[in-house]
Design goal:
heterodimer, A: 598 residues, Methanol Dehydrogenase, Chain A, five-stranded mixed beta sheet, 6 helices, 39 strands, 34% strand, B: 168 residues, mainly alpha, 5 helices
């Protein structure tokens, strides 16, 4: 029965969008409790392998969303930035907190949703000083009866979804190298794919696969460096705009690739037909780009690999010779789009550098790229070469002095922590965005293993227009903005869109909003107690009703940028940031799980 | 003073060459082995280390025995300037912010101290590290380098209106 539903669902989705495939082994076991049809569950971070964050549920619509109200809340007891999203498997909701990475399992079938169990790992507190930007975790993945997620201190764990028992725990990263693990894993074909953050610590970026059953490493590949270490072989690796070998080493001065960053801390997608998974790499290290002349491949890039052996199939660099900290770790969303009269297997990516890219996900070629926010570091993206047409006055480096007024800021046109959503009904993408610019004064960075390897002072200010963020709808087939809801503060939540044509997002000052996916009209809003830097999700409860869940919990970069929003440490008192003096009026830290219903 | 300058220059050279073999006179891994000028002889219980973690509260109102440390450069403005340079060179700014006003690591200029703000306490924090990710710099910097940083950090002034933030 479940299989029949699954096949029908896949058929229906394939007709409209890319196959939004659930994991092959992800049907919930009886032990967990499986009342819900597959479409009522949320089993992986971005809901489907295509990373659409689209749910086909239709009970909540543009006509009734105004009656959405909280039906349940739970304090996680943790103060760090609550990124990521809950999972719902059968009648259980799973929540991973920021460090110390507690995993809660709530029983949705009982009044008040009491815990079935909680799992409290022993996570090294030193990770708090190695993680660049707060103690965040971007969520768990459900597969084959297991909840799989990363601990901040460089471990991946698999927990029995029914009992909460730890099945395996594998060290994947080393704090001493400047590596921490904030991303949500991708489980595909029995492998758990994971990477590490550390672009601010000069790591030698990598991605690796663990065996889902045992936790043992299956393969590991670098994101930069020699072909052999990158798993790039002639004949298999075909980057769309480059030829030759050793691109990942020869595009760096000397051996600067050895500490060149290119971390992995965002979101991954998988196309079962092409058998490719896609992920973005972070900034090149250090921020002083004159210490690493060259394109610095494949930092600030999207890479397509085979899950079985990690073989690199293609790579495209959004920001060659990144000299603005433009990580490309944001989501890669797979959608089949009608572009100029033909259907294209596309990959859509909103980059920190301010451009939204529509690529051919078979080859990595750029089909179109247009700015979705204020951009002045480049004039455009040249489709013939795939390279940005640079604005000479906005290039940075220690010899160039203080370059003023670069847009977007290094917080990104959108934060990679804030993934977009795609609706196959409206054919639109929904994303948060930031309207911020920066000055960039570079100094020579010292490489001292396990300490920051940065070398920049980059004060921010609001971009033109008197607002600092927005939630917008984007047509990736034409590269244009369809509507935009402006927000006073930078917008840091992920997006959700549903079959009822309702989109959801949260704001930094603590509002959770539902909007009409067609027009952007706000349908409901509620103040959730702390700023939202998480990603809303939706599911069907045991009562057959559709619910929407989201975390409140201000943090992430904003724990650093607006240090006056913290109240937990009397020995650390900070002045407000001059460009967001008001934010601490509206929010403080604190993790809360919210569930809304009609 | 010249010694301090040499420390900074030596560090820069070593770091530029990506070697961390520092000039021998600042390699000072055990306090007992440190030069007399930079680290005065331990008091009474001479075999005990000079570490005191948060020793402001003592059971029975009786403090445990321990050595004392004195900053050989306390109040020396020239050393403090070198310390500011060292603060950037050693990537302290990467965690504590460019003006030590807080980032991933706490604000060092608010006059408030998790592990104590006296010279010796700040020394111990830097030399041996602290939980939650403050690395031990004693092995790389030696006591002379750490005292140089302490001298800079102690010059940071807390704003007078620190406890209250008002939007009215």
């Amino acid at each position: 029965m479940l299989r029949a539903v699954l096949i029908a669902l896949l058929g229906a989705l394939a007709a409209t969008a890319v196959s939004a495939v659930t994991p092959g082994t992800a049907a919930p076991s009886g032990a967990v409790g499986g009342h819900a049809s597959d479409e009522g569950q949320w089993l992986m971070p971005s809901r489907d392998y295509a990373a659409t964050r689209y749910s086909p549920l239709t009970q909540i619509t543009a006509s009734n969303a105004r009656t959405l109200h909280p039906v349940w809340t739970f304090s996680t007891g943790v103060l760090g930035g609550h990124e990521g999203q809950p999972l719902v498997v059968g009648n259980t909701m799973y929540v991973v907190t920021p460090w110390p990475n507690v995993l809660y399992a709530f029983d949705l079938s009982r009044d008040g949703y009491p815990l079935k169990w909680k799992y409290r790992p022993d996570v090294n507190a030193n990770a708090l000083g190695v993680a660049c930007c707060d103690s965040v975790n971007r969520g768990a993945f459900y597969a084959d009866g297991k909840i799989v997620y990363n601990l901040l201190d460089g471990h991946t764990v698999a927990i029995d979804a029914a009992s909460g028992r730890e099945l395996w725990k594998t060290q994947i990263a080393a704090l001493g190298n400047g590596e921490t693990t904030t991303m949500a894993p991708l489980v595909v074909k029995g492998k758990v794919i994971v990477g590490a953050a550390g672009g601010e610590f000069g790591i030698y970026g990598w991605i690796k696969a663990l065996d889902l059953e045992s936790g043992r490493e299956v393969w590991s590949a670098r994101n930069v460096g020699p072909d052999a270490e990158m798993r790039a072989t002639p004949g298999t690796f075909k980057p769309p705009y480059d030829s030759g070998t050793e691109l990942g080493a020869q595009s760096w001065a000397g051996d600067s690739w050895r500490r060149g960053g290119a971390p992995v801390w965002g979101w991954m997608a998988y196309d079962p037909d092409l058998d490719l998974f896609y992920y973005g790499t972070g900034n090149a290290a250090p921020y002083n780009a004159e210490q690493r002349l060259g394109d610095n491949k494949w930092s600030a890039s999207v890479l397509a690999r085979r899950p079985d052996d990690g073989a690199l199939v293609w790579a495209y660099q959004f920001t060659p010779h990144d000299n603005w900290d433009f990580d490309a770790t944001g989501a890669m969303v797979l959608a089949d789009l009608a572009i100029a009269g033909r259907t294209v297997k596309a990959l859509v990516h909103f980059d920190k550098n301010g451009f939204a890219y529509t690529l051919d996900r078979t080859t990595g070629k750029v089909l179109l790229a247009q700015p979705f926010t204020q951009v002045n570091w480049a004039r455009s993206i040249d489709l013939a070469s795939g390279r940005p047409v640079l604005e000479p006055s906005q290039q940075t480096g220690v010899s160039k002095g203080n370059i003023k007024g670069i847009c977007p800021s290094l917080e990104g046109g959108v934060s990679p922590a804030s993934p977009p959503a795609y609706s196959p009904r409206t054919h639109l993408f929904y994303t948060s965005s930031n309207n911020m610019c920066m000055d960039y004064a570079v100094s020579r960075a010292t490489f001292l293993k396990g300490t920051p390897y940065v070398g920049v002072n980059s004060p921010y200010k609001a971009g033109p227009g008197g607002y600092m963020g927005s939630f917008l709808a984007w047509d990736a087939a034409t590269g244009r903005k369809v509507w935009e809801d402006k927000e006073p503060f930078p917008n840091w939540s992920g997006a959700l869109v549903t079959g009822g044509d309702v989109a959801f997002y949260g704001t930094l000052d603590g509002w959770f909003k539902s909007v009409d996916a067609k027009t952007g009209k706000v349908l409901s809003k509620f103040k959730v107690g702390s700023g939202v830097v998480s990603n809303p999700m939706t599911y069907v409860g045991p009562d057959g009703r559709q619910y929407v869940a989201v975390y409140a919990g201000f943090g992430g970069d904003w724990a650093l940028l607006a240090g006056d929003t913290r109240s937990d440490d009397p020995t650390d008192v900070r002045a407000p940031a001059d460009y967001v003096k008001e934010i601490a009026r509206h929010t403080s830290q604190g993790g809360i799980v919210w569930i809304f219903g009609l | 003073m010249r010694a301090v300058k040499t420390v900074v220059q030596g560090l820069r050279r070593a770091l530029a060459a990506r070697r961390f073999l520092l000039p021998s006179f600042i390699v000072c891994t055990a306090l007992a082995a440190c030069g007399q000028r930079s680290s005065p002889p331990l008091e009474a219980a001479s075999t005990l280390p000079a570490i005191r973690y948060e020793s402001h509260l003592a059971a029975g109102d009786t403090a445990p025995p321990g050595g004392t440390l004195r900053n050989p450069h306390a109040g020396d403005a020239a050393v403090a300037r070198n310390g500011a340079l060292l603060f950037t060179t050693m990537n302290c700014d990467g965690c504590h912010g460019g003006d030590a006003s807080g980032w991933v690591g706490p604000n060092l200029g608010d006059g408030r101290w998790r592990y104590g703000g006296a010279d010796a306490e700040v020394f111990n924090s830097i030399f041996y590290g602290r939980p939650k990710g403050m690395p031990a710099f004693g092995g790389t910097l030696g006591s002379e380098g750490v005292w140089t940083l302490v001298t800079y950090i102690r010059t940071l002034q807390a704003p007078p209106d620190l406890p209250t933030e008002s939007w009215q």
